[in-house]
Amino acid sequence: MLRYTATDDKILLDWLNNEIFGEDYTKGVGYVLYDGNKPIGIAQMKVSPEFSVLESAGIIPSERGKGNGDFFTRSLIWGMSNVSEELIINAVRPYFAKFGFKEENGVMKCLSKDVVFPCDCHK
């Protein structure tokens, strides 16, 4: 079962961030995706009632291609949309457009009320 949780476990965050991005985790709290008890992904976010920013997210190489990244991203967007009025993704990727995000000044933005979650189950 996939789930994610916030943690400040520096050893775990450094290990995941190095596996995915090749560097230590430099922030405080990180969000870790687990498959059962196995940590497989990490995200860095800033969350407030006004806006939330997804700064980075990734899955360890051995777990890619299984749909875990899409699950993680959708879960993070869902969580942010339940807290903040505006959501910001610190990356410009066409992938985020399907959720309602639009490019603006080098980031992707969307109001929480405009977030959509299209079904990809017929692929």
Structure overview:
The chain is about 20% helix and about 35% strand. It has about 120 residues and is of the alpha+beta class. A seven-stranded mixed sheet has the order 1-2-3-4-5-7-6, with helices on both faces. Strand 2 (about 30-35) and strand 3 (about 40-45) form a beta hairpin. The longest helix is centred in the middle third of the chain and has 14 residues, at about 70-80. The mean pLDDT is about 95.
* CATH architectural group: 3-Layer(aba) Sandwich
CATH homologous superfamily caption: Gcn5-related N-acetyltransferase (GNAT)
One letter per element, helices H and strands E, the order comes to EHEEEHEEE
For this structure, what is the CATH class? Alpha Beta
Tally of individual domains? 1
User: What's the average pLDDT?
Assistant: 94
Question: What portion of the residues fall into strands of 2 or more residues?
Answer: 25-35%
First-to-last CA distance: 21 Å
- Counted by DSSP, the helix tally is 2
Shape: globular
Radius of gyration over C-alpha positions, nearest whole angstrom = 14 Å
Q: How many strand elements?
A: 7
Structural class, from secondary structure content?
alpha+beta
Report on the biggest sheet: 7 strands, mixed
Strand arrangement, major sheet: 1-2-3-4-5-7-6
CATH topology: Aminopeptidase
Poorly predicted tracts of residues = none
Helix content: 10-25%
